[in-house]
Write a structure and sequence with these properties.
Elements (H helix, E strand, L loop, with lengths): L2 E4 L6 H11 L21 E4 L9 H7 L3 H14 L8 H16 L5 H4 L2 H4 L5 H5 L3 H11 L11 H19 L4 H12 L3 H4 L5 H5 L3 H6 L2 H11 L20 H4 L2 E3 L6 E3 H16 L3 H7 L6 H17 L6 H8 L6 H9 L7 H16 L3 H17 L19 H5 L2 H12 L4
């Protein structure tokens, strides 16, 4: 780019700075000298026909969209502030080293930095860091931090993970709750694919990404974890979250259901009415429902007993209610008998079967202090169990669980642990 022409308002200050940055590159950076007048670059013209504001300062831009490197830098400054009375502390020296490493990344030859460099160049000197005072930290925040947006080739995934770890250090240093950050770090580690998580230099740190260990980790432990895992975050698997729309399938609802015992065809609407009536009869005097109506607290095992009762009674009835007919008759609104009871009785506090299973798996994982590899595998086991409603040891070696490796079960679990997992899951079988 050798000139910029603005024929409409520039809405993004960042894009504006990018255009100016490209246009002010030196002639040595030009790949097509033939495009330049007389094969040389002397001027860069901004032709503005819309009175755009070209005088926005760095702070205003940062307020609109703060780059992750700036966020990391500012978090480290707040952390450094807590060490001002103990500047020889090794943890303090680590924070200083991290800040200086970030400053060293700023391209001092960038056009947009040249006019500011005389005011901030002391931040590159050793003398500046020999003894720190609050005014110096404020200078770094207001004058130096905004220029980190000029750092090229940022690995956003890695920098985002670094930001979380630095925030955890700060919260722990201040003695504040950090459960959300800890959960996010643990999730990031759990989403690493096997080839990245099992690398010899990475695996020990992945295994430390359990909430209870992160809560007890020292600043030096977190630094080592950060340095080992941040470069791997580019490989992190996506955790897709789909939007679920509560829409009926009009074609399925208008069809019919074939009862195999009697050979009778029954319209879906009629079938739904009969199932709902039968459920009302079955739960009318059930102790779990009566306890719920009285507002008494229930544990998951009482609710599972209700699910089993309904499964047994409805499957044996002349209505032949199975998960398949249930799905066809009630489509999106219920995929378990507990969900059906919630709908029929309008008891929104009643959880679904899958919610009970998820809670129990979460508690089981927490109690057994599994490592990251084991946790990823057990999350997949949970999905398989929900589909089958029971679990056999052979299921752990078959698709889709074999995607972890044909020997994943034997590598990650002892025979006793496998037995415990299967027995635990089948306590919830229906």
């Amino acid at each position: 780019m050798y000139n910029s022409l603005s024929m409409k308002p520039v809405q993004s200050p960042i894009k504006l700075q990018q255009m100016i940055g490209r246009g002010t590159r030196s002639q040595a950076a030009c790949r097509h000298l033939e495009w330049l007048p007389n094969f040389e670059k002397k001027d860069f013209l901004i032709l503005d026909f819309w009175e755009n504001n070209f005088s926005r300062d760095a702070k205003e831009v940062a307020d609109l969209s703060t780059p992750v490197l700036v966020t990391v830098f500012n978090t480290r400054l707040r952390l450094l502030e807590t060490y001002l009375r103990d500047q020889q502390n090794p943890d303090c020296q680590q924070v200083i080293a991290d800040l200086r490493a970030q400053i060293a990344q700023i391209p001092t030859d960038a056009f947009t930095l040249r006019k500011h460099l005389p005011d901030i160049e002391e931040a590159w000197t050793d003398a500046f860091w020999n003894y720190l005072i609050p005014q110096k930290l404020e200078f770094l925040k207001l004058k130096v931090a905004p220029h980190l947006r000029l750092v090229p080739g940022v690995d956003v995934a890695a920098a985002t993970f670094v930001s979380k770890v630095e925030r955890l250090k700060l919260l722990q240093r201040r003695g504040k709750p950090a459960d959300d950050v800890i959960a996010s770090i643990a999730e990031d580690a759990a989403l690493l694919p096997n080839f990245a998580a099992s690398a010899p230099k990475v695996k020990p740190h992945v295994e430390k990404c359990r909430p209870e260990e992160l809560r007890q980790a020292s600043p030096s432990d977190l630094t080592a974890l950060r340095d080992a895992l941040a470069p791997q975050m580019r490989y992190k698997q996506r955790l897709d979250k789909f939007i679920e729309l509560d829409l009926l399938d009009s074609i399925a609802v208008s069809g019919y259901i074939l009862l195999t015992k009697s050979g009778e065809k029954m319209y879906v609407t009629e079938y739904r009415e009969k199932v709902e009536k039968r459920i009302l009869e079955l739960v009318a005097n059930h102790p779990t429902i009566r306890a719920l109506q009285r507002g008494e607290p229930l544990d998951d095992w009482q609710l599972l007993d209700l699910e089993r009762t309904l499964t047994r009674e409805l499957a044996a009835s002349d209505l032949e209610v199975t998960p398949e007919t249930l799905k066809k008759a009630f489509a999106h609104s219920a995929d378990s008998f507990l969900g059906l009871v919630r709908q029929v009785l309008d008891m929104q506090s009643l959880p679904d079967y899958k919610d009970l299973v998820a809670r129990q798996f979460e508690a089981f994982i927490t109690q057994n202090r599994y490592n990251a590899d084991q946790i990823r595998f057990l999350r997949a086991v949970q999905s398989v169990f929900l589909q089958k409603r029971h679990l056999e040891p052979a299921d752990l070696y078959e698709p889709p669980l074999d995607s972890f490796g044909v020997d994943a079960v034997d590598r990650w679990f002892t025979q006793e642990e496998v037995k415990e997992v299967v027995e635990f899951a089948n306590k919830m079988a229906v």
